[in-house]
Each structure stands twice: as C-alpha cells, then as structure tokens.
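Students often ask what a holo structure prediction actually looks like on paper. The answer is less mysterious than it sounds. You provide the chain, you provide the ligand, and the output is a string of discrete structure tokens encoding the 3D arrangement of the protein together with iron/sulfur cluster.
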Amino acid sequence: MEQARNQIDITTRLLNWYNINKRDLPWRESTDPYRIWLSEVILQQTRIIQGWDYYLRFTDRFPDVQSLAKAEEEEVLKLWQGLGYYTRARNLHAAAKQIMSQFKGVFPSEYSDILSLKGVGTYTAAAISSIAFNAPYAVIDGNVNRVITRLFAVKDPIDTAAGKKNISEIAHALLPYGQSGKYNQAIMDFGSLVCTPVGPKCADCPLQVNCRAFEEKNVFTYPVTRRKPVVRKRYFSYFHIIQGNKTFLQKRNADDIWRNLYEFPLIETPEAIDFPEISQTENFLHLFPNNMKLSVDHFLTLKHQLTHQTIHATFYRVEIEEGIAFNQPQKFTCIDRNNLADYPVSRLIDKYLEKIR
Ligand code: SF4
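The corresponding structure tokens follow.
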C-alpha cells in the first residue's frame, strides 16, 4: 500500500514537473507515429541539438512513409551523413518499405506490429505506442534506468536479466492510466535535465522526498552495472589519392561498420604502423607497385570513437602524375575531386574532409 502510494506520488510529481519544464521540440507538435518514429531513431546516440536539424530535413524531404520507402538508399544515407551509426538509416529505409508491403502503407498501431519493424527495439516501440497511441508501454533507456535505480535504490545490476526485469516492473507500475505518452516524455526529460549522470540537481529536485539514493547519500552508486564494455582498437591508414582532377573511393560492403558508405582506399593493420613500415606491406605494394612514382604526405591523424570501437586513422595524401596507370582494383570508383560531397561517407571521413576544406 505504502509502495503504491509512493509510486503514485512520484508519477504525479513527474507530470507536474513536466507541465512546467517540458522541452519545446519540433516532433512534440505531432502524434503522427511516422514522425515520432523518425525522431526516436534520429535521437538514438545523438544529442537533441544535433538531431533537431536532421529531423526537419528528413520530414521536409520525406514527409511520410511512402516518400521514404520510394527513395534510393544512397539518398537516405546522404541525408543521414554526419549523424553516424548508419545502420539506423538503412533500417529506417527498410522499415518504410516493410510498412508499404506488410501494412498497406499505414503505420501499424499494435505494439507487436511496431516491434516487428526492422530496427525497432522495445524502447522505440514503447515510445511510438505510448506517444502516438497512448498504449501502456514504458520506455526504458539509460535515462530511465538512472532515474529509477536512484529513486528506488535498485541494487541489481541493470545489465542482468534480473535487473532488467526489476526496472521494467517498476517503470510499468509508474505509468499513469491514459497518460503513458506524456509520462514517458516526462521521465526522459527529467533524466536529461535534472537527474543527470554527472551533477544531478538534487537540491532542486521535485522527487527528492521520494528518492532513496538521496536519502542514503549514495546517488552516484546508481545505476549499478556488472561489466565494463570491451572496446576494440582498430588502425586504419587511408590514402587520399590525387591524380589530376580525379580521386578514388571504395564502397564498404563487408559485414562491418559503415556498410554501403564510401571511403578512400584503406589498409587496416592490427596495430599502429608508420609510413616506412606500411609502404613495405603486401597491401600497399598491391595498391602502389614499387616502380610507381608517388608523392606522399602524412596529412592527418584522427581518433574516432564508436560505441565498441576506437578507430585510430591516419590519412595520407598521395599524388600520382596524370597519365601513369594506377593499379586500380575493380572495387575503386574513380570520381572528380570536386564531387566528393556527393557521396555518403562516415563521420570519420567527413571530419577529415572538413579539416582539409
Ligand atoms: Fe535524481 Fe537527485 Fe532527484 Fe534523486 S534527488 S531523483 S538522484 S535528481
């Protein structure tokens, strides 16, 4: 009984806080499931300020699921450029086609149908179901995990089955009848603005009286996790080849990061390697045979962080005189140097292009 009263009190305080502090965001003007889906996918691993423009550009170019489904994948990737995690864009495109073929072009309203869309996980399905259809599904992400584990002093690690089940039960118990969309947005905003990972605003927090972690003076213990993610280090040497007005790109198509995006010819090595060493490798000699006259500048070194990978990239600018037959394997696309911006590339290549501009 006491626990139920506490839960109702938390929900009421959260909704009251949200009424006053709600962020004015363009996707909140709509309950169109297509737009909510788009905003949720754009905002995964992206800050709101960065995602805002992309959302406006996407809804301008693809105002509905039909227009997105009809587009070429390359156009979708190009529009996505700079946001990173390109699998999201590919999945958006595939799911739009799925809606056309499986749901006659109408965005599904059932949670299980929404969850069946390519790339849609439980978080996104709960967000769309609750915000567009007011269905009783609680969103659970990093923000919600943090707020709930602090409020209820949850000791189970959030990356275990027991921990996840516990959080899900609490999150669903907090959902107010008929206002699940509003509640989900409230807890997301609260986690981003008040109960933040570093420097939570406990002194002004409207939930302070309900917060067990605050009472224990132990706020930073939560959320508890079991293991640290393993981050893989990778070493890329890129060759920005210039031959007159031409340069060369390759399309990534292996089952790896940045699939279907373009990049400069690349040699990946298991460890950091300098130019004298790399110029003796078989891959380099295949690309640039011994007798080929080259002018090579070590141009730039960039470190690029992905969720589970750190990429250490070195860019070389290689000039080859016009007329010399370049050992260009079939997989390279020869393009006009001035047209580089027409090709969808990873954020890493984009950073390099920004630097040389
Ligand atoms: Fe989060 Fe602090 Fe509020 Fe507790 S008191 S909910 S830790 S901001």
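The chain has two domains: 2-221, 232-356.
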